[in-house]
DNA sequence: GTAGGGTTAG
């Protein structure tokens, strides 16, 4: 009895160290405990596992599960739930599904937390129907849904393009007595902003204010980002200032949102100021923060500093992602080094990145800017996937070279594919055709554009 | 032991 009580105390001590990421000290306490004859139990290992997953990585978390098995302690539902949630968070979705099956195989009964994670996983996989089936299972069986069940459901519906359903579910649940939490409001505001339902988003923001909840840094970042997305930059920057004056702590999310927006609008000095503020703070930079800074360096034309940053990323044990490489490729293009950009694009393909579309678009534009239009046309023809940026770039540059009939063909191909193209580009093609005497072609193009608009909007 | 916000191109 005395011994069990002491292990409990030991676990409390370990948990408090794990909470602040002091993993070495926590491990030392485990060893001290063993010396005193207090063997770690399932709670000890679960505590360590979630801390390793949070502060180190998923592999470190897996090694804890091996350690506990070696010590003869069986993982329980909490062990599996932690691992499944960690895998889902990192988009290792097949691992999450495997773990869920493994849990069933070993005879551990999943609880509502396990089902919540499974639902989240299906949403991330872009399988809303399967997620919905899990949701129905939770509702129809004896499992009591938690508020997170509803939050995950609302968020998943939003992320899979069903904001309308998300909103109806939210209203229905409210009528059933569900009291939304701050997270619920943040989820809805974000989902509605992303699908450009700004009036609905404003309504939810108002409801949040009336609910007695206080918006947090996430609410602010969400609304700020929403302004940037709808090109209301001044309003977004005002929100950033408001956050500051109200004493909210900035984290990497809010810093990156505002630095990126300042960079995009060419307000580089202000962007540099804020970037330095972020560097001076005690925030650990992750890959997204590095990408944001790197993009700013590229815009400043500081390619050497950019390469130094790449070393720094490596030194910190972080991995460059699709964004990092794309930003570098664009930076090389903007500096006129298209050869370098092409080389790096090849590397990127070799590295096995799924999508290099944005990077290819940057190179197409770069080639045109250095006068290699025919090279760009060749590259364009060889691309398997194209989007509206690809077409816009080509149309714009063909017009600049007065090759209006070629531009007109691409413009039509773009519209036929259901993609939008900048009005300014459409205008240039029509005006160019008229100017060079192809008036009837210009007329035909106009009517085809009108038809495409009717068909696709 | 879950759920929410941030980075790239015309």
From TrEMBL:
Stretches forming PPR repeats: 41-75, 76-110, 111-145, 146-180, 181-215, 216-250, 251-285, 286-320, 321-355, 356-386, 387-421
Do you know which Pfam families this protein is assigned to? PPR (PF01535), PPR_1 (PF12854), PPR_2 (PF13041)
The positions making up the signal sequence are 1-28
InterPro entries cross-referenced by the UniProt entry: PPR_rpt, TPR-like_helical_dom_sf
Q: Which UniProt keywords apply?
A: Repeat, Signal
**Entry's Gene Ontology molecular function annotations:** mRNA binding
Source domain of life: Eukaryota
Q: Which family does it belong to?
A: Belongs to the PPR family. P subfamily.
Q: What is this protein called?
A: Pentatricopeptide repeat-containing protein
């Amino acid at each position: 009895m005395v011994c069990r009580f002491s292990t409990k105390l030991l676990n409390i001590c370990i948990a408090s160290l794990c909470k602040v990421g002091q993993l070495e000290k926590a491990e030392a306490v485990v060893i001290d405990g063993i010396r005193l004859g207090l063997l770690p139990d399932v709670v000890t290992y679960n505590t360590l596992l979630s801390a390793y997953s949070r502060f180190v990585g998923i592999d470190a978390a897996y090694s804890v599960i091996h350690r506990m098995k070696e010590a003869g302690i069986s993982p329980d539902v909490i062990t599996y739930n932690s691992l499944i949630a960690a895998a889902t968070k990192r988009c290792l979705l097949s691992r999450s599904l495997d773990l869920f099956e493994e849990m069933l195989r070993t005879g551990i009964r999943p609880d509502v937390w396990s089902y919540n994670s499974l639902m989240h996983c299906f949403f991330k996989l872009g399988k809303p129907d399967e997620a919905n089936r899990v949701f129905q299972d939770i509702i129809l069986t004896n499992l009591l849904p938690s508020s997170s069940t509803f939050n995950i459901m609302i968020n998943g519906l939003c992320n899979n393009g069903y904001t309308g359903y998300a909103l109806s579910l939210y209203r229905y649940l409210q009528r059933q007595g569900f009291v939304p939490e701050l997270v619920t409001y943040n989820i809805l505001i974000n989902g509605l902003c992303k699908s450009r339902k700004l009036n609905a988003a404003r309504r939810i923001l108002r409801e949040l204010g009336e609910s007695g909840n206080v918006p947090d840094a996430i609410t602010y970042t969400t609304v700020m980002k929403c302004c940037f997305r709808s090109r209301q930059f001044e309003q977004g920057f005002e929100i950033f200032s408001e956050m500051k004056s109200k004493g909210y702590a900035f984290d990497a999310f809010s810093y990156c949102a505002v630095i990126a927006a300042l960079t995009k609008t060419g307000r580089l000095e202000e962007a540099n100021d804020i970037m330095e503020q972020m560097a001076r703070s005690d925030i650990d930079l992750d890959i997204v923060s590095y990408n944001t800074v790197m993009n700013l360096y590229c815009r400043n034309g500081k390619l050497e500093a950019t390469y130094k940053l790449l070393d720094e990323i490596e030194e910190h044990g972080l991995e460059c992602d699709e964004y990092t490489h794309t930003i570098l490729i664009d930076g090389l293009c903007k500096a006129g080094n298209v050869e370098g950009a092409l080389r790096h694009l090849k590397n990127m393909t070799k590295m096995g990145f799924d999508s290099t579309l944005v990077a290819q678009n940057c190179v197409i534009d770069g080639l045109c800017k250095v006068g290699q239009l025919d090279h760009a046309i060749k590259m364009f023809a060889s691309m398997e996937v194209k989007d509206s940026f690809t077409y816009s770039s080509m149309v714009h540059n063909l017009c600049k070279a007065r090759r209006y009939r070629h531009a007109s063909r691409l413009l039509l191909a773009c519209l036929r594919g259901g993609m939008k193209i900048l009005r300014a580009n459409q205008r240039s093609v029509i005006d160019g055709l008229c100017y060079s005497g192809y008036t009837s072609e210009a007329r035909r193009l106009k009517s085809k554009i009108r038809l495409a608009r009717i068909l696709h909007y």
